[in-house]
Design brief:
By secondary structure, this protein is mostly helical. The protein contains seven helices and no strands.
């Protein structure tokens, strides 16, 4: 079974992924032993990154398969998955789930919608599925997050803090 947001991340501050930074800023060059940096190689070209990110944002509440994204980028699913991970630091399904959770956090803070409706807006059919996924992502239930965070400034962290598993499977949230 694929667990895109395991319990190990519960101690990380609640991530708001890609809310104020662009896709090209997600993955930073690694430092070498000599203090220099290595150039990131591979990945999707900037125009394909933009195309894929826009598609994910427009279809946030839907299941999006790697095959559909690969077709959009005109790559095989294998090459697309590798290029996506090189560009964003996480697999496509994990990026999609993180964007869903980011949207949920925004709705929890900025709207009076019930948790059930927020879950439905981001593509969860059952409140329990949404609550379980959100708890894995943020370490607290959506209701607890809303109660504890109302009026506080939001914190940001990067997607690549999530461990990687299940690279080429489509996202299933139900």
């Amino acid at each position: 079974m694929c667990h895109p947001f395991p319990a190990q991340i519960a101690n990380i501050s609640v991530p708001f992924v890609m809310a104020s930074i662009g896709p090209s800023e997600i993955m930073q060059p690694e430092e070498t032993a000599r203090g220099g940096t290595t150039r990131i190689r591979g990945g999707l070209p900037a125009r394909k990154q933009k195309l894929v990110v826009e598609y994910i944002e427009q279809h946030l509440a839907e299941e999006i398969s790697v095959f559909a994204l690969a077709r959009l980028a005109k790559l095989s699913p294998y090459h697309f998955s590798r290029a996506f991970r090189d560009s964003f630091g996480v697999p496509p399904h994990r990026y999609h789930m993180a964007r869903r959770m980011n949207r949920a956090q925004d709705l929890l803070l900025r709207s009076a919608l019930p948790v059930t409706q927020i879950g439905a807006r981001i593509g969860f059919r059952e409140t329990s599925s949404f609550t379980r996924a959100y708890r894995r992502y943020a370490g607290v239930s959506p209701s607890e997050y809303r109660r504890d965070r109302r009026g506080e400034p939001t914190s940001f962290s990067l997607l690549n803090q999530f461990p990687s598993t299940c690279d080429s499977k489509p996202l299933r949230c139900s």
